[in-house]
Design goal:
The radius of gyration is 26 Å and the shape is elongated. The protein contains 17 helices and 9 strands. With 337 residues, it is an alpha/beta fold.
């Protein structure tokens, strides 16, 4: 038996059960949205994934995840909570923020693993910082499992001084932003999880051109799924980029209209290049008519009319369809490079 308290001014008698040591494979094979099987293991996060697995099986009692926002810390906390419940056959521990945990309205079972996200928020407020550190000290002395996540690029002096017995009790695992190749693996895995089939060219463009982090990818892929689930050729890729064009808005060097027009005039030597560009912008990429007309320095009605006229030629000629498809493939190749 042991005395443990996670709140100031009170204590509870908690039965300490022996930690079981299941095989890691039994944890990895769980199903569910926020589980270890849905995590893409990369050089940038492998230490954090391994530490989270070991925490969930009782091998590491005190784990701190550190890294920039948007690259999987919260996912790992949720996965660890799910795995803890499966291993210990207990109700799934709740993942909460530091502020939620310290609020008077939130009660935490002191016998359950404590899993807290966004701990850096507690460091910014003196009172919460002191309360949380005292509670963590009791946890460490009692040997009750704790897993924390800090949204900072790397471990800081403030974080190290905040964690009780930092050098002897805690394992700190850092997550770094993935490189370009690893971003492609992240996009491909997230697309699969969303039930999307994406062309390799589209995965490459999103990974290399789309600004932001994993949350940005998640939002973009959900937007694609609302429109369709299969985006497997150059035409579909260009249409997908049109659907996602608002996600690229903050990039000073991104203009889908310019990319289309430039690729057509450089790679597609036809007598109807301008009409082809209008057709691709309006009927393939589905860009707004007013935006296309402004870019092409035309009246919206004239732009729509010329694009529609070319569309009729396209529908009536196999040769024009073949040339158009090759031009679209060249446009996608140009955007991806």
């Amino acid at each position: 038996m042991g005395i443990v308290s996670d709140r100031l001014g009170g204590s509870e008698v908690v039965e300490h059960s022996a930690l079981r040591r299941p095989r890691l494979s039994s944890v990895l094979l769980q199903s569910g949205g926020k589980s270890f099987e849905s995590i893409v293991t990369l050089p940038s996060n492998v230490q954090a994934v391994e530490s989270s697995l070991l925490f969930s099986t009782g091998r590491l009692p005190f784990v701190a995840l550190v890294g920039p926002s948007g690259w999987g810390k919260s996912h790992l906390l949720q996965a660890a909570a799910t795995a803890c419940a499966a291993v210990e056959r207990i109700p799934r521990p709740t993942v909460i923020s530091a502020k939620e945990w310290m609020s008077a309205a939130y009660q935490v079972d002191p016998s359950a693993p404590l899993i807290v996200d966004d701990v850096q928020e507690a460091l910014e407020q003196h009172k919460i910082r002191i309360q949380l550190r005292l509670a963590l000290e009791r946890r460490v002395r009692a040997g009750r499992p704790v897993m924390l996540a800090f949204s900072t690029p790397k471990p800081t002096r403030a974080m190290k001084s905040f964690l009780p017995a930092y050098h002897t009790a805690w394992v700190t695992a850092t997550i770094e932003p993935p490189n370009a190749n690893d971003r492609q693996r992240v996009v491909a895995a997230m697309a699969k999880a969303e039930g999307l089939a994406l062309a390799e060219s589209l995965v490459r463009i999103l990974a290399r051109k789309l600004p932001g982090d994993g949350r940005t990818f998640e939002g973009a892929l959900k937007r694609l799924r609302l429109a369709d689930t299969r985006w497997l050729d150059a035409v579909a890729t260009l249409r997908a980029l049109g659907v996602l064009n608002p996600y690229f808005a903050d990039q000073h060097n991104w203009d889908l209209r310019e990319s289309i027009l430039d690729a057509i005039y450089r790679r597609c030597k036809t007598e109807w290049n301008r009409d082809l560009a209008l057709y691709v912008m309006l009927h393939v990429a589905l860009l707004p008519e007013a935006d296309v007309a402004s870019f092409m320095e035309m009246e919206p009605g004239a732009a729509f009319s010329r694009a529609s006229r070319f569309r009729k030629l396209h529908e009536g000629s196999e040769d024009i369809r073949l040339q158009t498809r090759r031009c679209i493939e060249s446009i996608v190749d140009g955007i991806g490079n």
